[in-house]
Amino acid sequence: MSETTSKLQLNKFKNFLALERNVIHLLALVIIIGVGEKMWERFLPKYIEGIGGSILVIGGLGFFQNILNAFWSLPGGYIADTLGNKKAFFIFNILAICGYIIAIVFTNWFAVVVGMVFFSAWSSVSLPASMSLIVKSVGTKKTAMGISMHSIVRRIPMMLGPIIGGVLITTFGIVIGIKISFFISIVLCVVGIFFQQQFSNDKKEQTESISPWQLWKKFDARIKNLLISDILIRFCEQIPYVFVVLWCLDTVKISPVEFGILTSIEMLTSALIYIPVASFSDTLERKPFVTITFIFFTIFPTVLYFSNSFFMLAIAFFIRGLKEFGEPTRKAMIMDFSVAGAEARSFGLYYFIRDTIVAFAAFVGGWLWQFNPTINLFSAFVFGIIGTVYFLMFGKGTEKVLAIK
Predict the structure, then answer these.
(1) Pick from 11-25, 42-56, 222-236, 310-324: least confident
(2) pLDDT at 402
(3) Distance from C-alpha of 239 to C-alpha of 326, rounded to nearest angstrom
(4) How many CB atoms lie within 10 A of CB 54?
(5) Are the C-beta atoms of residues 102 and 111 closer than 8 Å to each other?
(6) pLDDT tens across 236-284, in order?
(7) What is the pTM of this model?
(8) Any idea of the CA torsion for 248, 254, 260, 263, to the nearest 10 degrees?
C-alpha cells in the first residue's frame, strides 16, 4: 500500500469520525480533566457520609449539583460565544482548581459544598463551549458523530477514574482517598491549561447581544417539547442518582473497587454503541434514537431494585450504559434547533432551564430515600414513563432541519 493511499484512507477514517484538529485537541483535554474529576465524583455521597453528613445532606448534595450545573451552563454559553473557546476553557480550569483547594484544606461537608461551586464549573460550564466548538469544526452534517466522539472519550475517564478512586479509598480510607483524588485533579487541571492552548482558529466572533429571555422567545416548539420530556426523564435519573452508590455499597454490600468496575461496565457499554448509532443518526430521523434512550433511563431504577448481587448489579449497570444510546443524538437535536448565531448560548440556556428544575428531583429523592428506598426507585420509574410518553406524543425529529439551516 503506497504512502498516498494510506494517507487517503487515514483522512477518510478521520472524516468519518469527525476528527478535525480542534476536535482531537478537545477530546484530549476531556480525558486529562475527566480522569481527575471521575476519581471522586461517584464516591462523593459516601465521602459526605464519612465526614458526618446526614441522608438529607446527601440528598441536598444532589440538589446542589444540579443547581450548579444549571447556573454554570448559562454563563458558559455566553463566555464561549464572546471570548472564544481557548479563554473560556482557561477560566473554567482556574475555577476548578480553586474549588479543589478548598475541599482539600477543610474536612467537613460544608467545605465540599463551597468547593463544588468552583470545581463543578469545568464539566458544566465547558459543555456549551464543547458543543459549539464541535459544530463549528465539523459542520451540521457530522454533528451527531462529532458529539458522539466527545461522548465516547468522556467515558474513558468515567471508566478509569472510579477504579482508581476505588483503589485509593480501599488503600487509604474514604476521607484520605478522596482528598488524594482532589489533589490529583488539581495536577491534571494544570496540565489541561497548557494543553488547551493548542486550539486553533480561536478568534473572538461578532455576536448579537441577546438576553436569555429574548433567546427563550426565539426557541421554537421543537426544542421546547424536547426540553419538557428531557426534564421528566432527568427526574427519573436524578431522584435516585446520588443514592446508587449507597444502594450498592450499603444494601448489596459490594466493595468500592467492585463499584468502580460496575461504573466501567456502564461506560464501556455506552462507548461501544456511540459510533454505530451516530453514523445512522446523522442521516436518519432522530426521534427514534432519543425515544430508545428514554426507555433505558426509565427501566434502570426498577432493575436496580431487583439487583441483590454483583452479577445482577452488572446487568443493571449494563442497562444504565444503554441509556446513552441516543444522548449524542439528543444533544445534536438541541444544536439543530438552536438559534442561528447563538448556538452555545442556546445550548447553555436549555441546560440552565433543565437543570434548575431537575435540581429539585435530587432534593425530593433524599426525602424519599430516607422514607423508603423502594418508593424512591419506583417514583423515578413513574417519571420515566411520563417523560417517554410525552416525547412520543409531542417530540419532533430533525429529518428536514439540516436542509433548512
Answers:
(1) 11-25
(2) 43
(3) 21
(4) 13
(5) yes
(6) 999 998 889 889 998 899 988 898 889 889 988 887 887 777 777 667 7
(7) 0.74
(8) -40
CA distance 206 to 148: 28
> What is the 3-state secondary structure of the chain?
CCHHHHHHHHHHHHHHCCCCHHHHHHHHHHHHHHHHHHHHHHHHHHHHHHCCCCHHHHHHHHHHHHHHHHHHHHHHHHHHHHHCHHHHHHHHHHHHHHHHHHHHHCCCHHHHHHHHHHHCHHHHHHHHHHHHHHHHHHCHHHHHHHHHHHHHHHHHHHHHHHHHHHHHHHHHCHHHHHHHHHHHHHHHHHHHHHHHHHCCCCCCCCCCCCCHHHHHHHCCHHHHHHHHHHHHHHHHHHHHHCCHHHHHHHHCCCCHHHHHHHHHHHHHHHHHHHHHHHHHHCCCCCHHHHHHHHHHHHHHHHHHHCCCCHHHHHHHHHHHHHCCCCHHHHHHHHHHHCCCCCHHHHHHHHHHHHHHHHHHHHHHHHHHHHHCHHHHHHHHHHHHHHHHHHHHHHCCCCCCHHHHC
Task: Please determine, for residue 404, whether its predicted confidence score (pLDDT) is greater than 50.
Answer: no
Confidence class of residue 401 from pLDDT cuts 50, 70 and 90?
A: very low
Determine the Cα–Cα distance for residues 335 and 320; give it in Å rounded to an integer.
25
Question: What percentage of residues in the chain have a pLDDT greater than 70?
Answer: 89
Rounded CA-CA distance 118/192 in Å is 16
Nearest CA to 298 out of 246, 242, 348, 234 is that of 234
Contact 130, 146 (CB under 8 A): no
Helix 287-305, helix 373-394: angle, nearest 10: 170
The cell numbers describing 377, all together, are: 426507585
Give the integer Cα–Cα distance in Å for 256 and 262.
10
Per-residue pLDDT tens digits for 147-186: 777 777 887 887 788 889 889 998 999 999 999 999 999 9
pLDDT band at 378 (very low <50, low <70, confident <90, very high): very high
